[in-house]
Design the sequence.
């Protein structure tokens, strides 16, 4: 079975999640050109009829600002665990919505948050499916989707 996530679907889901969780007035703006370095990555894995990973990559400032918006707190008052919780929740919701586009069975892992760029963190042997880049508050945010190599034929 060939399953692909269209860039339009990925963008729409990401924007919908951002508006619902962060702020409907804070719009994500698509970024063209080379991706800037993202320093923090949230990741969930999908398994079932399609196997792969959904990653959200943030600059440290964007992750801290997103956490502040989620928790209604001052960005400087948040500790690293709170920032990681926010990044994990955001990737969990984006990944869950993308999982909903797949035929059953499809299962979502618990989110993990790691240091590093989503194009290099924890993907093992995988094929890059999509990389969408956004600007938010003049900071980079990206959605990167990987298909597991062992899912040949998916």
Sequence:
């Amino acid at each position: 079975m060939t399953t692909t996530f269209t860039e339009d679907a990925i963008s729409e889901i990401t924007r919908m999640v951002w508006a619902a969780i962060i702020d409907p007035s804070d719009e994500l703006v698509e970024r063209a050109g080379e991706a800037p370095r993202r320093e923090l990555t949230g990741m969930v894995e999908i398994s079932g009829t399609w196997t792969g990973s959904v990653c959200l990559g943030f600059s440290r400032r964007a992750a801290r600002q997103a956490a502040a918006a989620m928790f209604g707190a001052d960005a400087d008052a948040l500790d690293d665990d709170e920032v990681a919780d926010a990044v994990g929740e955001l990737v969990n919701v984006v990944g869950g919505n993308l999982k909903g586009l797949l035929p059953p069975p499809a299962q979502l892992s618990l989110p993990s948050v790691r240091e590093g760029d989503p194009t290099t963190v924890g993907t093992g042997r995988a094929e890059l499916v999509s990389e969408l880049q956004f600007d938010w508050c003049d900071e980079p945010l990206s959605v990167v989707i990987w298909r597991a190599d062992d899912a040949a034929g998916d």
Q: What stands out?
A: The beta strands are 29-30, 40-48, 52-58, 106-108, 112-115, 126-136, 139-148. The chain is about 30% helix and 30% strand. Residues 115 and 130 are 20 Å apart (CA to CA). The longest strand covers residues 126-136.
